[in-house]
Amino acid sequence: MSKEMTIHLKYWKQNGPNDTGHFEEYTLDNVNEHMSFLEMLDVLNEELMLEDKEPVEFDYDCREGICGSCNLVINGQAHGPKQRVAVCQLHMRNYNDGDHVTIEPPRAAAFPVIKDLVVDRSSFDRIIEAGGYVSVKTGSAVEANAIPIEKEKSDAAFDYATCIGCGACVAACPNASASLFTGAKIAHLNKLPQGEVERSNRVVAMVEQMEEEGFGDCSNFAECEAVCPVGISISAIAEMRKDYMKAVVSGE
Amino acid sequence: MPSLIKALNSQVGRKFMTGITGIGLMLFLIGHLAGNLTIFGESQAFNVYTHTLESLGPLLYVIEAGLVFFFLYHAILGISIWRQKKKARPEGYDTYQTKGGPSHQSLASRSMIISGTVLLVFLVFHIMHFKYGLFSPDEGTVILESAGGVEARDLRALVIAEFQNPLIAFGYIAVMALAILHLAHGAWSAFTSLGMKHGETSKKVQLGAYIFAIVLMLGFIFIPLYIFLTGGEGSLIAY
To answer: What is the pLDDT along chain B (239 residues), one digit of tens a residue?
Structure first.
């Protein structure tokens, strides 16, 4: 038999970017422990609609932890209490009967609220547009093992490439810095032979765009690494710093 | 490519220079403590040391200008990072907590702006206090036999007299305790800002930063505490 719980919710309601927003409260009496956190919110919305109230908006897509759409701050922690988990993969068995749960959107000037818990993360897209791609001609796809690369480098590049762009790093950072996201996106390309050709231009352009979007500075809190659903290390930020200073000193 | 000035003013550059100036200031503190500890040397060792410093002439001004530059640059960067944080998150969270694990969030890392501000205010007071002697009667002079019989300021007497005042002694001790907090995060963070990766080395550097902060500041704390507790007549101080 599965456990049923009562959960006291407190969630952010904001009727558009210019609304000041406020918290609303609702108590759900029959939360099944096997529900995911987002399924619990689905139940909340069903109940709200049956009561002729407006449902609470939240972002989601794949619900299997790979798309990076969901990004809720739950009781002050991005993606909830567990490490290396996105909200969609967080299950209600991590909560107890009678728990109070506060749900907020990621709070950052560069992530303006669209509605309720949904924020506009197009600032991330613009950082990618500034240099998160390879534009040199690499020919048609060759046999993958034809390009010699050390295993350690390709493993590191892959680790950084697992970033799903959810923005939890920004949400959890006390400075609202996007350094982990930007660092990961730079490092995963700069470490590979195809990306290395443009490494200097890439790191400078992406760092400049990150600053222009209004994110904060990195103060090495490493909170981003703790909340990252794929566990990207703040070594990504170290790589970004080294590549940036190298690019400036070499003047390429 | 950006110019060097633009690069040093970028988010990466600002943090890089915070690290560089921070490491410079830590090296200065090591030298400062070594100098201070001469108060436990033979009777005139401290006055010989301070007199030698004051006799450096133009070189002293260059060193002092360098130190002022490092302190101010470090402080301005810290304040600008704090101001940007306010701009980047105008509306804070209702509830906020760290997730732990690899996070370095702690009382130390979250209070850098507060500990830093106190240290900066203290620095101004400290220079007026001991360099210019603005808060105490003229310290008088002493003849330094070991330095060829020259006449020098008796700063040793000033230090011993001042630290018998409980307000001054414990004021200094409180600020030094706060400096432990600042260095516990800063000494690790500086190397991370210069490109140190998160891993085994980084863990050792964090441990080293804690030990460095505590040992260095206990060194600074020991002097006022010893002078206060012994009323300036402890056996470690030679007459």
So the answer is: 888 999 999 999 999 999 999 999 999 999 999 999 999 998 899 999 999 999 999 999 999 999 999 999 999 999 999 999 999 999 999 999 999 999 999 999 999 999 999 999 999 999 999 988 888 777 788 888 877 888 898 999 999 999 999 999 999 999 999 999 999 999 999 999 999 999 899 999 999 999 999 999 999 999 999 999 998 888 888 87
Tell me the count of A-B CB pairs closer than 8 A: 160
Give me A199's structure tokens.
Answer: 């490494």
Instruction: Give domain B4-86+110-230's CATH architecture.
Output: Up-down Bundle (1.20)
Tell me which chain A residues have a C-beta less than 8 angstroms from the C-beta of B84: 175, 216-217
**Angstrom distance (rounded) from CA B153 to CA B193:** 42
| pTM score | 0.95
Chain B residue numbers with beta carbons less than 8 Å from the beta carbon of A209 are none
Copy the structure tokens of residue B138: 């003229």
Task: State which residue of chain B sits closest to A208, comparing Cα positions.
Answer: B10
- Identify the CA nearest to B206 among candidates B223, B221, B192: B192
Check CB contact under 8 Å for A176 and B112: no
Contacts of B182 in chain A (CB under 8 A): none
CA distance A207 to chain B (A): 8
CA–CA dist A92, A39 (Å, integer) = 9
The class (CATH top level) of A4-114 is alpha beta
CA A66 – CA A124 distance, rounded (Å): 17
In this structure, what are the phi and psi dihedrals at residue A55, rounded to the nearest 5 degrees? -70, 160
Do A230 and A164 meet the contact criterion of CB atoms below 8 Å apart?
yes
CATH 1.10.1060.10 fits A121-250, yes or no: yes
Domain borders along chain A are 4-114, 121-250
Q: Which of B28, B77, B41, B51 is nearest to B237 (CA)?
A: B41
Of B10, B81, B102, the CB nearest to A208: B10
User: Alpha-carbon Rg of chain A, whole angstroms?
Assistant: 20
How do the domains of chain B map onto residue ranges?
4-86+110-230
**Cβ separation A214–B87 shorter than 8 A:** yes
